[in-house]
Amino acid sequence: MTNHLPGPFSLVPFVSVDDMMKLVLDIGIERMLCDLAEAIETDFMRWEAFDKTPRVAAHSEKGVIELMPTSDGQAYGFKYVNGHPGNTRSGRQTVTAFGVLADVETGYPLMLTEMTLLTALRTAATSAMAARHLMPRGARTMAMIGNGAQSEFQCLAFKAVCGIDRVQLFDTDPRATEKAMRNLAGKGLELIACTSAEEAVQGAEIITTCTADKQFATILTDNMVGSGVHINAIGGDCPGKTELHRDILLRSDIFVEFPEQTRIEGEIQQLDPDHPVTELWQVIAGRAAGRTSDRQITLFDSVGFATEDFSALRYVRGQLEKRPFFTNLDLLADPDDPRDLFGMVMRRQSQTPAA
Ligand code: NAD
Question: Which of 4, 68, 267, 322 might form a disulfide with 306, Cβ 3.0–4.6 angstroms?
Answer without folding.
Answer: 68
